[in-house]
Amino acid sequence: MPRTIMTSKDLVGMRVVGGKSGEKHIGKVRHLVFHPHERRVVGFIVKRPDLALMFHRKDLFVALDSFEIEDGRIVVSSESAATDKAACKRLGVDWDSCVLWYGMSIVTESGRTVGTVGTVSFEAMTGRVESVVADRGATSKALLGTVEIPVASIRGFRFGIGERISDLDDQGEYVEEQDALRGAILVSDDVLDMEPEGGIAEMAGHAVGKAKPVAREAVQKAGDAANKGVEALGKRVGETKGAFAGFKEEYQKARHEGDALPAASGSVDTSQSSGAKPVTKAASAKPKQDGGATVAKAIGKQVGKSKGMFAAFKEEYDKARK
Predict the structure, then answer these.
(1) DSSP classification of residue 148
(2) I need a surface site. Which of 65, 82, 150, 173 has the fewest CB within 10 A?
(3) Beta strand 73-76 with 15-18: parallel, antiparallel or unpaired?
(4) What is the pLDDT of residues 213-229, one digit of tens each?
Protein backbone atom coordinates (compact mmCIF):
# COMPACT_ATOMS: atom_id res chain seq x y z
CA MET A 1 0.00 0.00 0.00
CA PRO A 2 1.56 3.34 -1.03
CA ARG A 3 2.43 5.81 1.69
CA THR A 4 0.32 8.91 2.06
CA ILE A 5 2.11 12.04 3.21
CA MET A 6 0.09 14.74 4.94
CA THR A 7 1.08 18.11 6.33
CA SER A 8 -0.07 20.18 9.28
CA LYS A 9 -1.49 22.65 6.74
CA ASP A 10 -3.76 19.91 5.41
CA LEU A 11 -5.43 19.40 8.78
CA VAL A 12 -5.23 22.60 10.81
CA GLY A 13 -8.40 24.64 10.40
CA MET A 14 -10.39 21.77 8.88
CA ARG A 15 -13.96 21.29 10.06
CA VAL A 16 -14.57 18.26 12.31
CA VAL A 17 -17.84 16.32 12.59
CA GLY A 18 -18.81 13.11 14.36
CA GLY A 19 -21.37 11.49 16.62
CA LYS A 20 -23.49 8.45 15.78
CA SER A 21 -24.69 10.02 12.55
CA GLY A 22 -21.27 11.37 11.65
CA GLU A 23 -22.84 14.76 10.98
CA LYS A 24 -22.72 16.47 14.38
CA HIS A 25 -20.52 19.55 14.35
CA ILE A 26 -17.62 19.22 16.79
CA GLY A 27 -15.28 22.08 15.91
CA LYS A 28 -12.10 22.73 13.92
CA VAL A 29 -8.59 21.29 14.10
CA ARG A 30 -6.37 23.52 16.19
CA HIS A 31 -2.98 21.76 16.58
CA LEU A 32 -1.22 18.47 15.89
CA VAL A 33 -0.16 16.49 18.96
CA PHE A 34 3.23 14.76 19.01
CA HIS A 35 4.58 11.84 20.98
CA PRO A 36 6.64 12.94 24.03
CA HIS A 37 9.78 11.09 22.93
CA GLU A 38 9.30 9.82 19.39
CA ARG A 39 9.25 11.77 16.14
CA ARG A 40 5.64 11.07 15.26
CA VAL A 41 2.16 12.56 15.34
CA VAL A 42 -0.30 10.80 17.66
CA GLY A 43 -3.38 12.89 16.95
CA PHE A 44 -4.75 16.42 16.93
CA ILE A 45 -6.67 18.84 19.13
CA VAL A 46 -10.11 20.05 18.10
CA LYS A 47 -11.19 23.51 19.25
CA ARG A 48 -14.83 23.19 20.21
CA PRO A 49 -17.19 26.19 19.94
CA ASP A 50 -18.23 27.77 23.21
CA LEU A 51 -21.61 26.68 24.51
CA ALA A 52 -24.25 29.32 23.78
CA LEU A 53 -21.34 31.63 22.90
CA MET A 54 -20.72 32.09 26.63
CA PHE A 55 -19.36 28.98 28.33
CA HIS A 56 -15.95 27.70 27.32
CA ARG A 57 -15.81 24.07 26.29
CA LYS A 58 -12.76 21.89 26.71
CA ASP A 59 -10.76 21.01 23.60
CA LEU A 60 -11.08 17.47 22.27
CA PHE A 61 -8.18 15.14 21.48
CA VAL A 62 -8.65 12.85 18.46
CA ALA A 63 -6.30 9.91 17.80
CA LEU A 64 -4.60 9.85 14.39
CA ASP A 65 -6.07 6.44 13.57
CA SER A 66 -9.66 7.39 14.43
CA PHE A 67 -10.89 9.59 11.61
CA GLU A 68 -11.61 9.73 7.90
CA ILE A 69 -11.71 12.67 5.52
CA GLU A 70 -14.95 12.95 3.57
CA ASP A 71 -16.11 15.85 1.41
CA GLY A 72 -13.43 18.13 2.82
CA ARG A 73 -14.39 17.39 6.43
CA ILE A 74 -12.87 15.23 9.15
CA VAL A 75 -15.30 12.57 10.34
CA VAL A 76 -14.35 11.21 13.77
CA SER A 77 -15.06 7.61 14.66
CA SER A 78 -17.91 7.07 17.11
CA GLU A 79 -15.83 4.55 19.10
CA SER A 80 -15.21 5.61 22.71
CA ALA A 81 -11.48 4.92 22.40
CA ALA A 82 -11.16 7.39 19.51
CA THR A 83 -10.88 10.49 21.65
CA ASP A 84 -9.50 12.02 24.86
CA LYS A 85 -8.17 9.89 27.75
CA ALA A 86 -9.46 6.62 26.34
CA ALA A 87 -7.56 7.27 23.12
CA CYS A 88 -4.36 8.16 25.00
CA LYS A 89 -4.62 4.99 27.06
CA ARG A 90 -5.11 2.89 23.94
CA LEU A 91 -2.13 4.55 22.25
CA GLY A 92 0.01 4.15 25.38
CA VAL A 93 0.87 7.84 25.73
CA ASP A 94 0.64 10.21 28.68
CA TRP A 95 -1.48 13.19 27.69
CA ASP A 96 0.35 15.54 30.03
CA SER A 97 3.67 14.63 28.42
CA CYS A 98 2.56 15.03 24.80
CA VAL A 99 3.95 18.00 22.90
CA LEU A 100 2.60 20.58 20.46
CA TRP A 101 5.54 21.22 18.15
CA TYR A 102 4.09 24.17 16.23
CA GLY A 103 5.79 27.47 17.10
CA MET A 104 8.53 25.87 19.18
CA SER A 105 12.15 26.91 18.73
CA ILE A 106 14.38 24.76 16.55
CA VAL A 107 17.83 24.52 18.13
CA THR A 108 20.95 22.79 16.81
CA GLU A 109 23.14 20.52 18.91
CA SER A 110 25.69 23.33 19.11
CA GLY A 111 23.05 25.67 20.59
CA ARG A 112 22.19 27.76 17.52
CA THR A 113 18.53 28.70 17.01
CA VAL A 114 17.52 28.34 13.35
CA GLY A 115 13.86 29.29 13.60
CA THR A 116 10.57 27.92 14.87
CA VAL A 117 8.50 24.93 13.79
CA GLY A 118 6.25 25.73 10.85
CA THR A 119 4.72 23.16 8.51
CA VAL A 120 5.25 19.53 9.52
CA SER A 121 5.00 16.69 7.00
CA PHE A 122 4.18 13.20 8.28
CA GLU A 123 3.11 9.74 7.16
CA ALA A 124 -0.68 9.51 7.47
CA MET A 125 -0.90 5.91 8.70
CA THR A 126 1.90 5.83 11.25
CA GLY A 127 2.27 9.54 12.07
CA ARG A 128 6.02 9.32 11.46
CA VAL A 129 7.47 12.80 10.88
CA GLU A 130 9.03 13.24 7.44
CA SER A 131 10.23 16.82 7.63
CA VAL A 132 9.83 20.14 9.42
CA VAL A 133 9.94 23.60 7.84
CA ALA A 134 11.95 26.13 9.85
CA ASP A 135 9.81 29.26 10.00
CA ARG A 136 11.73 32.52 10.48
CA GLY A 137 8.92 35.02 10.18
CA ALA A 138 7.09 36.48 7.19
CA THR A 139 9.83 38.96 6.22
CA SER A 140 12.69 36.48 6.42
CA LYS A 141 10.62 33.91 4.57
CA ALA A 142 10.06 36.33 1.70
CA LEU A 143 13.70 37.43 1.52
CA LEU A 144 15.58 34.25 2.33
CA GLY A 145 13.07 31.49 1.67
CA THR A 146 12.51 28.47 3.88
CA VAL A 147 14.58 25.52 5.07
CA GLU A 148 12.91 22.10 5.10
CA ILE A 149 14.64 19.88 7.66
CA PRO A 150 14.44 16.13 6.89
CA VAL A 151 13.67 13.60 9.60
CA ALA A 152 17.27 12.34 9.57
CA SER A 153 18.37 15.68 11.02
CA ILE A 154 15.63 15.89 13.66
CA ARG A 155 16.57 14.57 17.09
CA GLY A 156 13.16 15.26 18.65
CA PHE A 157 11.79 17.34 21.51
CA ARG A 158 14.14 18.26 24.38
CA PHE A 159 13.51 19.98 27.70
CA GLY A 160 15.95 22.54 29.06
CA ILE A 161 16.78 24.28 25.75
CA GLY A 162 15.15 26.97 23.62
CA GLU A 163 12.40 29.33 24.68
CA ARG A 164 10.30 29.08 27.83
CA ILE A 165 7.22 26.92 27.38
CA SER A 166 5.66 27.39 30.80
CA ASP A 167 5.75 29.84 33.70
CA LEU A 168 4.51 27.23 36.18
CA ASP A 169 6.20 24.47 38.12
CA ASP A 170 4.81 20.99 38.85
CA GLN A 171 2.62 22.40 41.63
CA GLY A 172 1.16 25.11 39.44
CA GLU A 173 3.12 27.93 41.06
CA TYR A 174 4.65 30.77 39.04
CA VAL A 175 8.44 30.65 38.79
CA GLU A 176 11.16 33.17 37.96
CA GLU A 177 12.56 33.62 34.45
CA GLN A 178 15.68 31.58 35.17
CA ASP A 179 13.61 28.72 36.57
CA ALA A 180 10.98 28.62 33.81
CA LEU A 181 10.44 25.37 31.95
CA ARG A 182 12.07 25.42 28.51
CA GLY A 183 11.81 23.20 25.51
CA ALA A 184 12.71 23.05 21.82
CA ILE A 185 13.04 20.74 18.84
CA LEU A 186 16.65 19.57 18.68
CA VAL A 187 18.27 19.14 15.25
CA SER A 188 21.75 18.24 14.05
CA ASP A 189 24.30 20.91 13.12
CA ASP A 190 24.16 20.00 9.42
CA VAL A 191 20.96 22.09 9.27
CA LEU A 192 23.18 25.18 9.42
CA ASP A 193 24.60 24.27 6.00
CA MET A 194 21.23 23.79 4.30
CA GLU A 195 20.41 26.33 1.59
CA PRO A 196 17.08 28.20 1.91
CA GLU A 197 14.68 27.76 -0.99
CA GLY A 198 12.06 29.98 -2.59
CA GLY A 199 13.15 33.41 -1.34
CA ILE A 200 13.79 36.58 -3.29
CA ALA A 201 17.52 36.24 -2.74
CA GLU A 202 17.56 32.79 -4.29
CA MET A 203 15.52 33.89 -7.29
CA ALA A 204 17.75 36.89 -7.90
CA GLY A 205 21.06 35.15 -7.30
CA HIS A 206 20.57 31.66 -8.64
CA ALA A 207 17.79 31.74 -11.24
CA VAL A 208 20.20 31.96 -14.17
CA GLY A 209 22.57 29.35 -12.77
CA LYS A 210 19.75 26.88 -12.16
CA ALA A 211 18.18 27.31 -15.61
CA LYS A 212 17.99 24.11 -17.62
CA PRO A 213 20.44 23.84 -20.58
CA VAL A 214 17.53 23.58 -23.03
CA ALA A 215 15.99 26.78 -21.70
CA ARG A 216 19.31 28.63 -21.84
CA GLU A 217 19.83 27.44 -25.44
CA ALA A 218 16.34 28.62 -26.42
CA VAL A 219 16.92 32.04 -24.91
CA GLN A 220 20.27 32.35 -26.67
CA LYS A 221 18.75 31.32 -30.01
CA ALA A 222 15.92 33.81 -29.68
CA GLY A 223 18.40 36.55 -28.85
CA ASP A 224 20.52 35.77 -31.92
CA ALA A 225 17.41 35.75 -34.09
CA ALA A 226 16.30 39.12 -32.80
CA ASN A 227 19.76 40.58 -33.41
CA LYS A 228 19.74 39.38 -37.03
CA GLY A 229 16.24 40.75 -37.52
CA VAL A 230 17.26 44.14 -36.15
CA GLU A 231 20.32 44.14 -38.40
CA ALA A 232 18.11 43.50 -41.44
CA LEU A 233 15.72 46.22 -40.36
CA GLY A 234 18.58 48.68 -39.92
CA LYS A 235 19.86 47.86 -43.38
CA ARG A 236 16.43 48.43 -44.85
CA VAL A 237 16.01 51.71 -43.00
CA GLY A 238 19.35 52.82 -44.42
CA GLU A 239 18.15 52.04 -47.93
CA THR A 240 15.04 54.17 -47.39
CA LYS A 241 16.76 57.01 -45.60
CA GLY A 242 14.59 60.06 -45.40
CA ALA A 243 11.34 58.14 -45.90
CA PHE A 244 9.73 59.39 -42.73
CA ALA A 245 11.14 62.86 -43.11
CA GLY A 246 9.73 62.82 -46.64
CA PHE A 247 6.35 61.85 -45.30
CA LYS A 248 6.28 64.94 -43.07
CA GLU A 249 7.30 67.13 -46.01
CA GLU A 250 4.65 65.67 -48.31
CA TYR A 251 2.02 65.94 -45.56
CA GLN A 252 2.71 69.63 -44.90
CA LYS A 253 2.78 70.31 -48.63
CA ALA A 254 -0.57 68.57 -49.09
CA ARG A 255 -2.12 70.52 -46.22
CA HIS A 256 -0.89 73.80 -47.74
CA GLU A 257 -2.31 72.90 -51.14
CA GLY A 258 -5.62 71.94 -49.57
CA ASP A 259 -5.91 75.25 -47.78
CA ALA A 260 -5.13 77.13 -51.02
CA LEU A 261 -7.92 75.53 -53.09
CA PRO A 262 -10.63 78.01 -54.27
CA ALA A 263 -13.91 78.06 -52.43
CA ALA A 264 -16.78 76.22 -54.06
CA SER A 265 -19.54 78.25 -55.69
CA GLY A 266 -22.78 78.63 -53.83
CA SER A 267 -25.49 81.04 -52.85
CA VAL A 268 -25.05 83.64 -50.18
CA ASP A 269 -27.65 84.16 -47.49
CA THR A 270 -28.39 87.87 -47.43
CA SER A 271 -31.37 87.65 -45.19
CA GLN A 272 -29.36 88.53 -42.14
CA SER A 273 -29.42 92.01 -40.70
CA SER A 274 -27.22 94.73 -42.17
CA GLY A 275 -23.62 94.64 -41.05
CA ALA A 276 -23.58 90.90 -40.49
CA LYS A 277 -21.05 88.83 -42.37
CA PRO A 278 -22.53 86.76 -45.19
CA VAL A 279 -22.64 83.01 -44.63
CA THR A 280 -21.85 80.75 -47.58
CA LYS A 281 -24.36 77.92 -47.68
CA ALA A 282 -22.31 75.79 -50.06
CA ALA A 283 -20.31 73.12 -48.21
CA SER A 284 -16.73 74.14 -47.63
CA ALA A 285 -15.85 70.44 -47.23
CA LYS A 286 -14.65 70.10 -50.81
CA PRO A 287 -11.31 71.81 -50.21
CA LYS A 288 -10.87 69.62 -47.13
CA GLN A 289 -11.79 66.52 -49.10
CA ASP A 290 -9.36 67.40 -51.83
CA GLY A 291 -6.70 68.16 -49.27
CA GLY A 292 -7.42 64.89 -47.49
CA ALA A 293 -7.01 62.96 -50.69
CA THR A 294 -3.68 64.70 -51.29
CA VAL A 295 -2.54 63.81 -47.77
CA ALA A 296 -3.54 60.18 -48.30
CA LYS A 297 -1.57 60.20 -51.53
CA ALA A 298 1.45 61.55 -49.65
CA ILE A 299 1.20 58.76 -47.09
CA GLY A 300 0.96 56.12 -49.79
CA LYS A 301 3.93 57.59 -51.60
CA GLN A 302 6.17 57.41 -48.54
CA VAL A 303 4.97 53.97 -47.47
CA GLY A 304 5.88 52.77 -50.92
CA LYS A 305 9.41 54.03 -50.40
CA SER A 306 9.76 52.05 -47.17
CA LYS A 307 8.11 48.91 -48.52
CA GLY A 308 9.53 45.70 -46.99
CA MET A 309 11.25 47.22 -43.97
CA PHE A 310 9.40 45.21 -41.35
CA ALA A 311 8.95 42.23 -43.63
CA ALA A 312 12.74 42.07 -43.85
CA PHE A 313 12.98 42.00 -40.08
CA LYS A 314 10.49 39.13 -39.81
CA GLU A 315 12.19 37.17 -42.57
CA GLU A 316 15.61 37.36 -40.90
CA TYR A 317 14.13 36.59 -37.48
CA ASP A 318 12.33 33.49 -38.73
CA LYS A 319 15.44 32.24 -40.53
CA ALA A 320 17.57 32.58 -37.40
CA ARG A 321 14.97 30.80 -35.24
CA LYS A 322 15.12 27.66 -37.41
Answers:
(1) E
(2) 173
(3) parallel
(4) 544 455 455 445 544 55
